[in-house]
Amino acid sequence: MATEHILSLLIIERDKINSAIAALGGATKHVSSPSKSSEAPAPAPVKAVRKRKALTAAQKKAHSERMKAFWAARRKKAAKA
Question: What residues contact residue 40 under an 8 Å CB cut-off, 6+ apart?
Fold first, then answer.
């Protein structure tokens, strides 16, 4: 690997670490980022985590009954084969 490419990868990694530290509240000083013309690829965007709604007792019971029927049918099908 070319030395310049390794250096640009290290700078990107340093910036990721610095931003993580800043997000945790440890640092307030901004470190300069590498130039846009560097050969290293841009980091992948972070996906947002979707949270599920809590099920009510009735929804849990209905889901349980559906799954019991599903697995019973699956066992029956496997027994025939």
Answer: 5, 8, 9, 12, 34
